[in-house]
Amino acid sequence: MDGITKSANFSRVHSTIEARMAGIASSLFMERPVTLADESDLAAGRDARTITLARGEQGRIELAGSGGRLTYADPIAESSIAALVAMTYSGQGPVAADPASLSIIALADRLARTDIPVLINGPTGTGKEVLSNFIHRRSERKDKPFIAVNCAAIPETMLEAMLFGHEKGSFTGANAAGEGFFRAADGGTLLLDEIAEMPLSLQAKLLRALQEGEVVPIGATRPIKVDVRIIACANRDLPHEVAEGRFRADLYYRLNVFPIEMLPLRERRADIAPLAFTMVLRHVAKGDAVPWISDAALAVLGDYAWPGNVRELENVMRRALLLSQGKPAIEEEHIIFDMTARAVEKPAPAPVADIATAAATRGPAKLSKIVQISEARAIMDALESVGGHRANAARALGISERTLRYRLASFREAGIAVGAGR
């Protein structure tokens, strides 16, 4: 187990836990080594990070510095190993237990030792940025900057200046020069999240930056050398985007040196329990007792389809922490899923009109929800009027096609069914 030291008493008393942990720990990584000890081990010499294990009638986590004490009732129970994985790796790197996730993490560690571009594909909320950060922290560039840029969150008119920099006076409002994200990340790693939302005009400039290792700020006449490792993330099918003419083929092949596919959470069920405990450790209020997660609650979490992936799981666990305040464990009744989400195995979400009607019969709704439903109805009407063609619908609505795609994705995440168009 990389980074893990075990006391003799731990191996003797907790052999079942040790055997289960071995298969997981061989593919996970941590920044600070940890010692796994039994409660009978003397406290002397425990200045380092130590997790002490004990058997008891009720599962319990007690934090102490960067370590703590873990009491478990059944070494076979899913909660026992999940809690130990979370205590060992939370804040240290990716947390996982599913074989598919463990193999991706092991591959990412090998990729970290190189400088080749990495393209990470996967649905929203699956942990693409977490994996990107892990690659940076395991690389030779770990002491240099890691800068994450969401290409969909920056207006098109500003994206070029934010990425490549600009000279003073190069455009209206440029009262001072800006170095841009490429130069800010010099020597380190630049994460380009949601790269499919980047305009075609900027894709050409990005391609040159990757090929030549240099950028030309807006208003400048000479290129500036940069040493940046690029990691790109996409939540849409880039080969399809290339076929539709929305993404440059040459840029795609430049980025696609080593693609990684992040699976939806519903396809890696063994990750759910350790991630749930990780969220509890992350969000429990300082000074509060850490609640256990009962096996019944874990079963409920395991049966859910997780349309929002890990991001939704985090919301659910934060909600459970609030509902279980003062209780020793999070039980089944504390697990409340997002009301607007729809499980993938269940029928498709109701049309916008039905949702609006249902909202009206329930009484007053939040203004943000009313606005979202009205906006969805307008977009759906525009798409229908142009036969589902997104470019024409965006033109009719007075927005960019990129903004339209972003709106459609946000509606789908909220469980509002609108035509995706073409």
Plain-language structure description:
- This protein is α/β, with parallel strands linked by helices and 422 residues long.
- The chain has helices at 8-13, 15-25, 78-89, 99-112, 128-137, 156-164, 180-184, 200-212, 238-243, 249-255, 272-283, 295-303, 309-323, 352-362, 367-385, 390-397, 401-413, and strands spanning 4-6, 34-38, 50-55, 60-64, 67-72, 118-121, 146-150, 189-193, 214-215, 224-225, 229-234, 258-261, 292-293, 329-330.
- The protein contains 17 helices and 14 strands.
- It has a 5-stranded mixed β-sheet. A 5-stranded parallel β-sheet has the order 7-8-11-6-12. It has a two-stranded antiparallel sheet with strand order 9-10.
- α3 crosses α11, α4 crosses α5 (128-137) and α16 packs across α17.
- The radius of gyration is 24 Å and the shape is globular.
- 36% of the residues are buried.
